[in-house]
Design brief:
Elements (H helix, E strand, L loop, with lengths): L3 E2 L2 E2 L4 E3 L3 H8 L5 E3 L5 H5 L12 E8 L6 E9 H14 L6 H9 L9 E5 L3 H14 L16 H7 L5
Parallel strand pairs: 3-4
Antiparallel strand pairs: 1-2, 5-6, 5-7
């Protein structure tokens, strides 16, 4: 027998992480294959680390709604959201409206901020990309407390307005 080592025929197998159809078509060429899925059940179900809660995640774009009117504030921070929210709350408590647009809105309009409804709308580790995401989200909102629209070119406005959800 060709390839015989001590009476046993050696076989070589090729593992393909693709579809069974590819394995079958290669078998017709005399190449032995076996099917192996790209994503296993273990990869899907087992997490070795717990996910970081959104409040403790750094590098986020966030949304703070007013509890009295429909305005929202969109901001970004490279630190944790928890830390940045403390700064907004401190500015409101001290009446330091120059430090926070949220504090300015609450003081000037005598509104209550709905801190519990603060949401992370996007995450990105890099400052410039976070600023672009912040500007995108500011422009998709109908009414904001933000002082400016951010550093995103006006060339994006038609695309942003097309993706903006309609107000009912």
């Amino acid at each position: 027998m060709a390839g015989d080592e001590g009476g046993w025929e050696t076989k070589q197998w090729k593992v393909i992480t693709n579809t069974r159809a590819h394995c079958n078509s290669l078998a017709s060429l005399g190449i032995r294959t076996c099917f192996r899925p790209c994503h296993t059940l273990r990869q899907t179900l087992v997490r070795l680390k717990d996910r970081t809660p959104l409040q403790q995640r750094a590098g986020v774009v966030y949304r703070i709604p007013c509890g009295t009117c429909s305005k929202v504030y969109i901001g970004q921070t490279g630190r944790t959201l928890e830390h940045r929210l403390k700064e907004h709350k401190r500015a409101l408590t001290l009446g330091n409206t120059a430090q926070s647009a949220v504090a300015e809105h609450a003081v000037d309009q005598m509104h209550v901020i709905n801190w519990n409804e603060t949401k992370v709308v996007s995450c990105h580790p890099y400052y410039c990309q976070r600023c672009a995401l912040e500007a995108w989200h500011i422009r998709t909102e109908h009414q904001t407390m933000n002082r400016d629209e951010g550093p995103l070119s006006s060339l994006y406005n038609p695309l942003i307005h097309r993706s903006r959800p309609s107000v009912v």
